[in-house]
């Protein structure tokens, strides 16, 4: 009796521990990613491409929570490879935060990563045929408030043996001609795309196959390939497509949903479409017709996926995305242009770009660097926060686990954003 009671308590403790969210409010298939919790803290102290104190060095080892004592542009000459069990807390960077510019970032095989409030922009000089973010295999990753642009193959590609991924409150923009794709999302392991803006891509905004939930997203100015490409192959897919908003722009020539077939099983609700490019929001909710949804197989019931705590109406989703998608703690010039000038025009403005270094984008900078708050023990948590929250500003204690299950540094980084 006593033993089983003890076991019951143990089991409860273990399951409540494993249920800890990546951060408070994390949602979707990747919500339980643990990142670098239980490992050490690495403070990025310079904007160098490599070497001690660089972002590349920070993510090169497993078991790290990466914070930033600098803000600005990190120009990289080769692809950065992120290790397993890494948390990247871009919201800690002073000034306008961090933009990584150049060859893209690989998360292939990087199990258990948490990535927040950072911008990944490919260069025109980036390897041809490379994606801004690539995930070919791996499980349990969450990308939240991440801005991704200028990939040369896909802007954000998830393709292969990949499970439990969330992309939430992010901004995925402007693949470079000639391929110009928002992202190939192709896995049976579960991908949630939530409150994310897909803007200015010819095709694959995203192209989805497998297990997917697509909830409260905004897709703006897609091109000839379609806004949401449903499978386009023989493999079966099972998707919830809930309360998204599709707004045509100057480059848009086709209806939002394309290339569906009977293997694409989907539950749909309240997807709003504004096709007329007249600068006002005056569309309608798609009727559940085969034509409107490009021949998918409609399901009567929602798939039992993690979903969101609060399902917004499509027009509320638009407002939310405008206010906070991407690395929005401090939006840079690029995201501000995309959100205010392009999306804000409701159909009138949308750029085809082949070179991000010329107008209207004019390159990835400038990014204001700012000044980091004083951190005497250099453990990543500023003195003022430590003093106010009962940790020791003179002792390296940021990686210690607090009573709520998060590391001290996580409680700090989570306090910086809504
Ligand atoms: C960063 O790069 C600069 C110049 O490229 C160099 O002077 C400096 O030593 C580097 N810093 C570190 C920590 O390697
Ligand atoms: C994905 O998440 C589910 C639910 O948390 C879990 O049971 C499963 O093991 C995860 N898959 C992988 C490959 O980690
Ligand atoms: C799509 O939905 C709209 C609104 O319900 C409806 O008016 C229109 O006829 C539909 N188009 C097609 C091709 O079914
Ligand atoms: C803090 O301690 C961890 C190990 O507990 C270590 O990895 C890290 O380098 C230390 N940081 C500083 C600034 O000493």
TrEMBL record:
One of its GO terms (molecular function) is lyase activity. Residues 1-19 form the signal peptide. Keywords: Glycoprotein, Lyase, Metal-binding, Signal. SUPFAM superfamilies: Pectin lyase-like. It comes from the Eukaryota. InterPro entries: Pectin_lyas_fold, Pectin_lyase_fold/virulence, Polysaccharide_Lyase_1. This is Pectin lyase-like protein.
């Amino acid at each position: 009796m006593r033993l089983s009671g003890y076991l019951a308590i143990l089991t409860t403790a273990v399951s409540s521990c494993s249920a800890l969210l990546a951060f408070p409010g994390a949602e979707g298939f990747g919500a339980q990613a643990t990142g670098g919790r239980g490992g050490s803290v690495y403070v990025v102290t310079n904007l160098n491409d490599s070497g001690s104190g660089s972002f590349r060095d920070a993510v090169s080892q497993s078991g790290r929570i990466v914070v930033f004592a600098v803000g600005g542009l990190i120009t990289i000459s080769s692809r950065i490879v992120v290790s397993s069990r890494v948390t990247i807390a871009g919201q800690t960077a002073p000034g306008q935060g961090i933009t990584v510019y150049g060859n893209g970032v690989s998360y292939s095989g990087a199990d258990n990563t948490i990535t927040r409030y950072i911008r990944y922009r490919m260069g025109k000089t980036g390897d041809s045929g490379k994606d801004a973010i690539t995930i070919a295999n791996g499980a349990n990753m969450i990308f939240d408030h991440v801005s991704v642009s200028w990939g040369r193959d896909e802007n954000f590609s998830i393709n292969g043996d990949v499970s439990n991924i969330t992309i939430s409150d992010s901004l995925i923009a402007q693949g470079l001609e000639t391929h110009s794709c928002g992202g190939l999302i192709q896995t049976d392991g579960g991908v949630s795309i939530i409150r994310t803006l897909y803007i200015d891509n010819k095709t694959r905004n995203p192209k989805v196959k497998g297990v997917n939930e697509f909830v409260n997203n905004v897709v703006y100015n897609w091109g000839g390939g379609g806004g949401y490409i449903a499978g386009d192959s023989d493999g079966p897919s099972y998707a919830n497509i809930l309360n998204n908003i599709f707004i045509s722009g100057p480059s848009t020539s086709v209806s939002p949903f394309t290339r569906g077939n009977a293997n694409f099983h989907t539950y749909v609700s309240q997807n709003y479409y504004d096709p007329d490019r007249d600068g006002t929001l005056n569309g309608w909710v798609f009727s559940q017709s085969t034509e409107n949804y490009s021949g998918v197989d409609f399901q009567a019931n929602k798939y039992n996926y993690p979903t969101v705590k609060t399902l917004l109406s499509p027009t509320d989703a638009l407002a939310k995305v405008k206010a906070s998608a991407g690395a929005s703690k401090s939006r840079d010039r690029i995201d501000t242009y995309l959100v205010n000038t392009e999306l804000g025009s409701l159909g009138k403005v949308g750029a085809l770009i082949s070179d991000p270094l010329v107008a209207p984008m004019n390159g990835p900078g400038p990014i204001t660097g700012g000044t980091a708050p004083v951190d005497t023990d250099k453990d990543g948590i500023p003195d003022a926060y430590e003093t106010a929250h009962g940790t020791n500003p003179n002792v390296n204690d940021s990686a210690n686990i607090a009573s709520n299950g998060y590391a001290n540094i996580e409680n700090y980084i989570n306090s910086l954003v809504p």
